[in-house]
Input
Amino acid sequence: MAQQKTSEITLRIALDENRIPEQLTWSAQDGGIENEDAKAMLLSVWDSKNKESLKIDLWTKDMPVDEMKIFFHQTLVSLSDTFMKATQDEKMTATMKDFCEYFAEKMELK
Output
């Protein structure tokens, strides 16, 4: 049996006395990322046994609201692309992209 290669992604969160994130850093050695700063993160994993998604949403207390709106818009666009790759459902992907345009318009991002 061949030895399986593994890869590790590390998240480090510095918290204040009230357990509010002050600093987020992440590393992904295979991607050449080492202790890169981030202001926000959204992590979802699929629990196949319970058929549910589990998530961690964190942002630092100094994450500007205007940047959070852009972050959400870009995440929604990315999710649309991922949905297309995973399902090949062009009709629903187009609907999701339409919503992304609507979101950007309402948030005055465009």
